Amino acid sequence: MITVLLNWFNGWRIDFDGWLVRARRHSDPVTLPPEIGFVEECAIAVRTPRHARLIDRAALAQGGGE
User: Fold this and answer.
1) Rounded CA separation 29/35 (Å)
2) For 11-39, what is each residue's pLDDT tens digit?
3) Report field, pTM of the whole predicted structure over 0.70
4) How far, in Å, CA of 41 to CA of 39, rounded?
């Protein structure tokens, strides 16, 4: 439950197809494996709350937390 709450605070929202989506940040990966999600020009989408949290934690580890 805490992961879902932290994802919401970090800007992740669920779209109509069930993907977690948020605006892309400079610290986000350029590509993602298809089993995790995909990156577009202005957005990033992942399948599970766990994947969203891992992306946010990696950005914090790189010093890119906004």
Assistant:
1) 15
2) 999 999 999 999 999 989 999 999 999 99
3) yes
4) 7
